[in-house]
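Incident log, structure service

09:12 report received: a user says their structure output differs between two submissions of the same chain.
09:20 pulled the input from the user's history:
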Amino acid sequence: MIRLSGIGRQFQVGEQTVQALRGIDLHVARGDYLSVMGPSGSGKSTLLNIIALLDQPSAGSYWLNGRDVTQLSDDELARTRRDNIGFVFQFFHLIPRLTAAENVEMPMILAGIPAKQRRERVGEALASVSLADRAEHRPNQLSGGQLQRIAIARAMIMQPAILLADEPTGNLDSQSGLEIVELLENLNRRGVTLMVITHDPNLGARAGRQVRIVDGALV
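09:34 re-ran on a clean worker, output below:
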Protein backbone atom coordinates (compact mmCIF):
# COMPACT_ATOMS: atom_id res chain seq x y z
CA MET A 1 0.00 0.00 0.00
CA ILE A 2 2.72 2.49 1.06
CA ARG A 3 6.28 2.12 -0.21
CA LEU A 4 8.98 4.69 0.47
CA SER A 5 12.38 4.27 -1.17
CA GLY A 6 15.35 6.50 -0.39
CA ILE A 7 13.16 9.33 0.87
CA GLY A 8 15.07 12.46 1.85
CA ARG A 9 13.83 15.90 2.84
CA GLN A 10 15.96 18.95 3.27
CA PHE A 11 15.07 22.54 4.14
CA GLN A 12 16.97 25.74 3.58
CA VAL A 13 17.15 27.83 6.75
CA GLY A 14 18.98 31.02 5.83
CA GLU A 15 22.31 29.88 4.42
CA GLN A 16 22.13 26.53 6.23
CA THR A 17 20.76 23.31 4.74
CA VAL A 18 18.91 21.16 7.25
CA GLN A 19 18.55 17.46 6.41
CA ALA A 20 15.27 16.45 8.08
CA LEU A 21 15.03 12.95 6.54
CA ARG A 22 17.82 10.73 5.24
CA GLY A 23 17.33 7.71 2.96
CA ILE A 24 14.05 6.46 4.44
CA ASP A 25 13.00 3.01 3.18
CA LEU A 26 9.63 1.86 4.51
CA HIS A 27 6.88 -0.50 3.39
CA VAL A 28 3.43 -0.50 4.98
CA ALA A 29 1.01 -3.22 3.85
CA ARG A 30 -2.76 -2.90 3.79
CA GLY A 31 -4.17 -3.42 7.27
CA ASP A 32 -0.87 -2.85 9.08
CA TYR A 33 -0.69 -1.19 12.50
CA LEU A 34 2.60 0.69 12.62
CA SER A 35 4.08 3.07 15.17
CA VAL A 36 6.84 5.54 14.33
CA MET A 37 8.70 6.60 17.45
CA GLY A 38 11.53 8.98 18.18
CA PRO A 39 12.46 12.07 20.17
CA SER A 40 11.24 15.57 19.40
CA GLY A 41 12.93 16.92 16.28
CA SER A 42 13.85 13.48 14.96
CA GLY A 43 11.86 13.86 11.73
CA LYS A 44 8.63 12.06 12.70
CA SER A 45 6.31 14.88 11.66
CA THR A 46 8.24 15.51 8.43
CA LEU A 47 7.83 11.84 7.54
CA LEU A 48 4.12 11.99 8.40
CA ASN A 49 3.62 15.05 6.20
CA ILE A 50 5.23 13.28 3.24
CA ILE A 51 3.15 10.13 3.72
CA ALA A 52 0.07 12.34 4.10
CA LEU A 53 0.87 14.07 0.77
CA LEU A 54 1.11 17.40 2.57
CA ASP A 55 4.78 17.75 1.62
CA GLN A 56 7.02 16.49 -1.16
CA PRO A 57 10.35 14.73 -0.60
CA SER A 58 13.59 16.27 -1.85
CA ALA A 59 14.83 12.82 -2.92
CA GLY A 60 13.52 9.29 -3.35
CA SER A 61 10.18 7.84 -4.43
CA TYR A 62 6.82 7.33 -2.73
CA TRP A 63 4.40 4.77 -4.11
CA LEU A 64 0.82 4.68 -2.83
CA ASN A 65 -1.41 1.84 -4.03
CA GLY A 66 1.04 1.12 -6.84
CA ARG A 67 1.21 4.72 -8.05
CA ASP A 68 4.22 7.04 -7.85
CA VAL A 69 2.60 10.01 -6.11
CA THR A 70 5.73 12.16 -6.32
CA GLN A 71 4.79 12.77 -9.96
CA LEU A 72 1.24 14.02 -9.32
CA SER A 73 -0.02 17.56 -9.81
CA ASP A 74 -1.33 19.57 -6.87
CA ASP A 75 -4.94 18.81 -7.83
CA GLU A 76 -4.19 15.10 -8.17
CA LEU A 77 -2.43 15.10 -4.80
CA ALA A 78 -5.45 16.76 -3.16
CA ARG A 79 -7.85 14.19 -4.64
CA THR A 80 -5.59 11.28 -3.70
CA ARG A 81 -5.24 12.59 -0.15
CA ARG A 82 -9.00 13.16 0.20
CA ASP A 83 -9.92 9.69 -1.06
CA ASN A 84 -7.25 7.63 0.69
CA ILE A 85 -5.98 9.22 3.89
CA GLY A 86 -7.55 10.34 7.17
CA PHE A 87 -5.77 12.46 9.80
CA VAL A 88 -5.93 12.68 13.57
CA PHE A 89 -3.81 15.31 15.32
CA GLN A 90 -2.74 16.06 18.88
CA PHE A 91 -4.57 19.41 18.90
CA PHE A 92 -7.76 18.17 17.17
CA HIS A 93 -7.94 21.03 14.59
CA LEU A 94 -11.71 21.34 14.81
CA ILE A 95 -13.37 24.55 13.60
CA PRO A 96 -14.53 26.38 16.76
CA ARG A 97 -17.64 28.02 15.28
CA LEU A 98 -19.01 24.76 13.87
CA THR A 99 -20.93 22.10 15.77
CA ALA A 100 -19.60 18.58 16.15
CA ALA A 101 -21.85 17.42 13.30
CA GLU A 102 -20.76 20.29 11.05
CA ASN A 103 -17.07 19.56 11.71
CA VAL A 104 -17.58 15.92 10.74
CA GLU A 105 -19.57 16.94 7.67
CA MET A 106 -16.99 19.40 6.31
CA PRO A 107 -14.89 16.93 4.22
CA MET A 108 -18.05 15.72 2.47
CA ILE A 109 -19.10 19.29 1.65
CA LEU A 110 -15.70 19.88 0.06
CA ALA A 111 -16.11 16.62 -1.89
CA GLY A 112 -19.54 17.67 -3.21
CA ILE A 113 -21.52 14.87 -1.58
CA PRO A 114 -25.31 15.56 -1.56
CA ALA A 115 -26.83 16.94 1.66
CA LYS A 116 -29.09 13.95 2.39
CA GLN A 117 -26.20 11.51 2.13
CA ARG A 118 -24.05 13.81 4.28
CA ARG A 119 -26.64 13.87 7.08
CA GLU A 120 -26.97 10.10 7.10
CA ARG A 121 -23.22 9.52 7.19
CA VAL A 122 -22.63 12.14 9.89
CA GLY A 123 -25.22 10.44 12.10
CA GLU A 124 -23.57 7.07 11.60
CA ALA A 125 -20.09 8.50 12.21
CA LEU A 126 -21.07 10.21 15.47
CA ALA A 127 -22.83 7.07 16.67
CA SER A 128 -19.69 5.04 15.92
CA VAL A 129 -17.70 7.19 18.39
CA SER A 130 -20.56 7.25 20.94
CA LEU A 131 -21.26 10.96 20.50
CA ALA A 132 -24.59 11.05 18.69
CA ASP A 133 -26.00 13.04 21.63
CA ARG A 134 -23.30 15.74 21.18
CA ALA A 135 -24.03 16.49 17.52
CA GLU A 136 -25.07 20.11 18.15
CA HIS A 137 -22.33 20.91 20.67
CA ARG A 138 -19.47 23.19 19.68
CA PRO A 139 -15.84 22.34 20.49
CA ASN A 140 -15.75 24.60 23.57
CA GLN A 141 -18.58 22.52 25.04
CA LEU A 142 -16.72 19.23 24.75
CA SER A 143 -13.98 17.50 26.75
CA GLY A 144 -10.59 16.65 25.29
CA GLY A 145 -11.55 13.02 24.80
CA GLN A 146 -14.79 14.03 23.08
CA LEU A 147 -12.92 16.45 20.82
CA GLN A 148 -10.60 13.67 19.71
CA ARG A 149 -13.55 11.36 19.07
CA ILE A 150 -15.09 14.03 16.84
CA ALA A 151 -11.75 14.39 15.06
CA ILE A 152 -11.64 10.63 14.45
CA ALA A 153 -15.20 10.66 13.10
CA ARG A 154 -14.22 13.49 10.74
CA ALA A 155 -11.05 11.64 9.69
CA MET A 156 -13.04 8.53 8.78
CA ILE A 157 -16.08 10.18 7.17
CA MET A 158 -14.65 9.74 3.64
CA GLN A 159 -13.93 6.07 4.45
CA PRO A 160 -10.16 6.26 3.86
CA ALA A 161 -8.06 3.10 3.80
CA ILE A 162 -5.24 4.80 5.75
CA LEU A 163 -5.46 6.64 9.08
CA LEU A 164 -2.47 8.71 10.24
CA ALA A 165 -2.47 9.70 13.91
CA ASP A 166 0.09 12.26 15.09
CA GLU A 167 0.46 12.08 18.90
CA PRO A 168 -3.28 11.30 19.20
CA THR A 169 -3.20 11.03 23.01
CA GLY A 170 -0.71 13.85 23.69
CA ASN A 171 -3.39 16.28 24.92
CA LEU A 172 -5.47 13.79 26.91
CA ASP A 173 -5.57 12.35 30.40
CA SER A 174 -4.67 8.67 30.82
CA GLN A 175 -8.23 7.32 30.73
CA SER A 176 -9.32 9.40 27.74
CA GLY A 177 -6.08 8.50 25.97
CA LEU A 178 -6.70 4.80 26.47
CA GLU A 179 -10.23 5.12 25.10
CA ILE A 180 -8.92 6.90 22.00
CA VAL A 181 -6.23 4.25 21.43
CA GLU A 182 -8.83 1.50 21.71
CA LEU A 183 -11.06 3.32 19.22
CA LEU A 184 -8.17 3.63 16.75
CA GLU A 185 -7.23 -0.01 17.22
CA ASN A 186 -10.83 -1.06 16.59
CA LEU A 187 -10.67 0.75 13.25
CA ASN A 188 -7.49 -1.17 12.47
CA ARG A 189 -9.19 -4.46 13.31
CA ARG A 190 -11.86 -3.53 10.77
CA GLY A 191 -9.20 -3.24 8.07
CA VAL A 192 -8.00 0.38 8.25
CA THR A 193 -4.23 0.76 7.89
CA LEU A 194 -3.14 2.64 11.02
CA MET A 195 0.08 4.59 11.46
CA VAL A 196 0.71 6.28 14.81
CA ILE A 197 3.43 8.87 15.26
CA THR A 198 4.45 9.12 18.92
CA HIS A 199 7.25 9.70 21.40
CA ASP A 200 5.35 7.64 24.01
CA PRO A 201 6.94 4.17 24.21
CA ASN A 202 3.84 2.68 25.85
CA LEU A 203 1.64 3.80 22.97
CA GLY A 204 4.22 2.81 20.37
CA ALA A 205 4.61 -0.68 21.83
CA ARG A 206 0.93 -1.45 21.21
CA ALA A 207 1.41 -1.46 17.44
CA GLY A 208 1.97 -4.63 15.47
CA ARG A 209 5.14 -3.11 14.02
CA GLN A 210 7.40 -0.44 15.47
CA VAL A 211 10.05 1.66 13.76
CA ARG A 212 12.24 4.31 15.34
CA ILE A 213 13.53 7.47 13.71
CA VAL A 214 16.60 9.34 15.01
CA ASP A 215 18.20 12.36 13.32
CA GLY A 216 16.05 11.82 10.24
CA ALA A 217 16.98 8.15 9.70
CA LEU A 218 15.19 4.92 10.56
CA VAL A 219 17.17 2.83 13.04
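09:41 both user submissions now match this output. Likely a transient worker issue. Closing.
09:42 reviewer note: Strands lie at 2-13, 16-28, 33-37, 59-64, 67-68, 85-89, 162-166, 193-198, 209-214, 217-218. The mean pLDDT is 92.
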